[in-house]
Every structure is written in C-alpha cells, then in structure tokens.
Specification:
Blueprint (H helix, E strand, L loop, with lengths): L2 E4 L9 H7 L5 E7 L11 H10 L3 E7 L7 H7 L3 E5 L5 H13 L3 E6 L17 E5 L14 H15 L4 E5 L6 H8 L3 E4 L1 H4 L4 H11 L3
Parallel strand pairs: 1-8, 2-3, 3-4, 4-5, 5-6, 6-7, 7-8
C-alpha cells in the first residue's frame, strides 16, 4: 500500500498542532524546510521541528530545501526527524555524501531529492545507501503549484534504478499530487505521496487522505 505524507506547508501555522491532528490518519508527516537561498521562500527551522516532535508520534519526513544542508543535519536529527531529504543541487557531491553519513551516524533514514532540472541518474553515486529518493513534480519553494506531467518520465527512470540497485528504497513524489495525478505517479513507480493543498484544502482532510489511498491501492 502506498504511503500518504501530508505536507504541513499547507497547514494553518497558527493552529499547527490542531492541523497535525487532522491528518493523523496519514502514514507520515511531511515537513518542508526552506531557507530563502536554495529556494525563494522561507518556512521553518529546527525549533519548529523540535516542537512538532513533542506533540506527535507520526513519522517525520523532513525535506531540507536548504543550501549546504550538511551544516544542519545533526540539529534536525536531534530535533526529532525520522527521515531527512537533501537536494543533490544544494551542494557538491562530497558534501552530499557527508550529509548522508551524518544521517546514518544519527540513526535517521537517508534520502536525496531531485528538482525537475535534475537527471534521474544523478542518484546513482548514493542509491545503494539510501532509504528513499524524492522526485519533485513542481519547482521547489511554494505549495499549490500545478503538477508537471513531464516528470512522470523521471519517476519511471528513478523506479528502474531503484529496482536494479536498491529495491527496498522508497520513491516519494512531491508536488501537485491529488486524486487524478496520484494514480499517474503510482503507476510510474511512486511508493510515498506528498500532498499539501489536496489534503489541507479539503473540507475533511481524513476523506482527502482516503481518496488518495483509493488511487494508491497497489
């Protein structure tokens, strides 16, 4: 069964604890960290992740859209992240490798993320040590964007590489995922769906999660 990971980027930050409870039927909670440098937006940081951890036992899927992420790996691990994703475009390869080693040392699951401009094959130097690959189907930085259909090819390519080199690795898709697009990304090989507006923009988030699951029956 595919996993559903609502993104708190679309939650009401004045009522964040309430909005986390509203998506408790989901498998993971997706936390978008943006620094205003790697992407043109600023969201939250270590203190908020630490606070979230105190109020939920949900699996925290923390997506670091930040420049030179290795500088903050230890802090986000200690704050309570269960999995960290770092963007391959955010630093040179040796420093990405350092970030993944720091995750391993902290006992946190390891992932790399790809912007739409990045080839699927960019994951190959890291793939055998990863717990997840995250494919963006929008340009990172803002919620509510339109799903990029051309990224289905990247998802398929990543799926093929995972199946060949690390079949236990999850494949997460983030951006414009909703009933309709969910079925397409699952057919392309996704095993984890990030959904922000499709869940938090719904009158009943639990029903929205159920709708995504219906598209996601494997």
């Amino acid at each position: 069964m595919v996993k559903i990971a609502p993104s708190i980027l679309s939650a009401d930050f004045c009522n964040l604890e309430r909005d986390i409870r509203r998506v408790s039927a989901a498998d993971w909670l997706h936390v978008d960290v943006m620094d205003g440098m790697f992407v043109p937006n600023i969201t939250i940081g270590v203190p908020v992740v630490q606070s979230i951890r105190k109020h939920t036992d949900m699996f925290l899927d923390v997506h670091l859209m930040i420049d030179k992420p290795v500088r903050y790996i230890d802090q986000f691990c200690k704050a309570g992240a269960d999995l960290l994703s770092v963007h391959l475009e955010a630093d040179h390869s040796a420093r990405i490798a350092d970030a993944l080693r720091a995750m391993e040392a902290n006992g946190v699951k390891r992932a790399v993320a790809l912007r739409p401009i990045t080839s699927a094959r960019a994951i190959l130097p890291y793939l055998e040590q990863l717990d997840m690959v995250l494919v963006m189907t929008v340009e990172p930085g803002f919620g509510g964007q339109k799903f990029m259909e051309e990224q289905l090819d990247t998802i398929r390519e990543v799926r093929a590489l995972i199946d060949r080199y690390n079949p236990a690795c999850e494949l997460e898709v983030d951006g414009g995922v909703a009933p309709g697009t969910a079925e397409k990304v699952i057919e392309a090989g996704a095993t984890v769906l990030v959904a922000g507006s499709a869940v938090y923009g719904a009158a009943d988030p639990a029903k929205a999660i159920k709708a995504l699951r219906q598209d996601g029956v494997l």
